[in-house]
Design brief:
Layout lengths: L2 E6 L24 H10 L3 E7 L10 H12 L5 E5 L15 H9 L2 E10 L2 H10 L2 E5 L4 H10 L3 E3 L2 H11 L5
Parallel strand pairs: 1-2, 1-4, 2-3, 4-5, 5-6
Helix pairs in contact: 1-6
């Protein structure tokens, strides 16, 4: 039976926005994120991260370094991390706002799209969620404050942060953390 899913963007949503990161010390969770993810996990929600990481194509970080960074992210209770290593103009189907990685997460983790949400801090995150057929929520952390009006005008929910988005999601699917 498909299960509920929480898919989140990495930089500015889950962890502090620090530009291109290559060091473990740069993986700093935003306030309340670890507790929110633990609550979702305890409620039986699968958790995935979907992130654009053009730092790989730019030569700033290797796939091996990125894997180590994502191992650290998984320590927050994340089941899987999916990344697009391509440059913005690569025309791939995995770079948000394309839905490729979201659809892959839904398939791999056996998620119920009607009980899955994607949370991010860019309007392109919202577009990716909609293209994948799942609810999308914009947070005001990271770059979110600059995209909030555009997201709201596009019919997306805008909340302050990931813990608020997680609680809203858990309430909407009728589970408690």
């Amino acid at each position: 039976m498909a299960r509920p899913g929480l898919i989140v963007d990495r930089d500015g949503t889950l962890i502090e926005e620090r530009g291109y990161i290559s060091a473990l010390d740069d993986i700093v969770p935003l306030p309340g994120v670890e507790a929110a993810l633990a609550g979702a996990q305890a409620a039986g929600v699968a958790i995935a991260v979907v992130t654009n990481q053009s730092a790989v194509a730019r030569g700033i970080v290797s796939e091996a370094q990125l894997a180590l960074l994502h191992d650290r992210v998984k320590e927050f209770g994340v089941d899987a991390v999916y990344h697009c290593p391509h440059l913005p103009d690569s025309d791939c189907n995995c770079r948000k706002p394309s839905p490729g990685l979201l659809l892959q997460a839904v398939k791999d983790l056996d998620l119920d799209p009607s009980r899955t949400v994607f949370v991010g801090d860019h309007f392109t995150d919202c577009q990716a969620g909609r293209a994948a057929g799942i609810e999308a929520v914009l947070v005001r952390t990271g770059h979110g404050a600059t995209h909030a009006d555009e997201a709201a005008a596009g019919g997306f929910t805008v909340v302050d942060d990931l813990p608020t988005a997680v609680q809203r999601f858990l309430d909407s699917i009728g589970v408690s953390s």
